[in-house]
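Students often ask what a holo structure prediction actually looks like on paper. The answer is less mysterious than it sounds. You provide the chain, you provide the ligand, and the output is a string of discrete structure tokens encoding the 3D arrangement of the protein together with S-adenosylmethionine.
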Amino acid sequence: MKQHASEVGEVGDSKESPALLAPVGTVLRSRSNQSGCGDVERDACSMSQANPFHIPEIKPSEFAQFQKLIFDIAGIHLPEIKKSLLVGRLSKRLKHLGFCRFSEYYNYVINKAHADELQIFVDLLTTNETFFFREPQHFDFLRKRAVSHGGSTFRIWSAASSSGEEAYSMAMVLADTLGNRSWEVIGTDISTRVLEKARYGHYPVDRIEGIPPILLKRYCLKGLGEHSGTLLVARELRERVRFLHSNLMSPRKDLGLFDVIFLRNVMIYFDNDTKRKVISGLMPYLKKDGHFVVGHSESLLGLTNALKPVQPTIYCRNFC
Ligand SMILES: C[S@@+](CC[C@H](N)C(=O)[O-])C[C@H]1O[C@@H](n2cnc3c(N)ncnc32)[C@H](O)[C@@H]1O
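The corresponding structure tokens follow.
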């Protein structure tokens, strides 16, 4: 291990340094000759391939197909005003695969022979914005809740963890509060791309803003040399946080019971029926005296009778 060069440690040790992430998906051969396009379309297609900035048009029927697909898989509701977002996110992928029409890409995605593409499609259409200690009051609550916990392993679930900042923020609080007492943090997400990032625990240094200085010093390593401008979550935390692939529409069965579930900033993408379905699907994972935390722009009002509010955006089971 190299000498630490500053109050936060150094990233650059071969044991600590994660490899760079691979780009999403693999390069496939151009399909322009196989697409069955007519002449006009073939012209549009060659124009699209020649001009890297050309964005193909999407027909209403094509948009509707993608809307239904992402809703059926992830429960994500993409309203009409999100059409340009969908086009922006998928068009690079179309170009990469050599397709000139959205319908060709749709047929490719739903073809069972290309099962991996469905995951890439989900990765492209999920919005993964997150940061450390987002909505800091929730972490103050977590600290108090951890202190008052006695006995069994204190188990926390970041149920839409994105790239891991939320789960590592939880872990810093628990390590600081409970030390070597038994605790566990699980992060899950539907996007495998962000889960891969989460497992590395390696972030651009501009992500650290919200981390309280004392926790930053204790649990983060600062990159030097070729790693300058980055931050690595300390190994002792990375080893205690597990990231697993799970869809909120049908959560995996092997997660066990939790004292606190964070379900933050994901229900904004769901309609009310989906929110109800997701919340009731998570109740079997919450201990009888467990707490459930949602984002500050979210509310459970009118969505469930199984939880009661204890303070804004924090709920507990009816038994607590
Ligand atoms: C905006 S991020 C929120 C991250 C974090 N909870 C926070 O508050 O900062 C929403 C995350 O929810 C995930 N997501 C969306 N639909 C999902 C589903 N059906 N199952 C699991 N995760 C889902 C997305 O992949 C994305 O990473």
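The chain has eleven helices and eleven strands.
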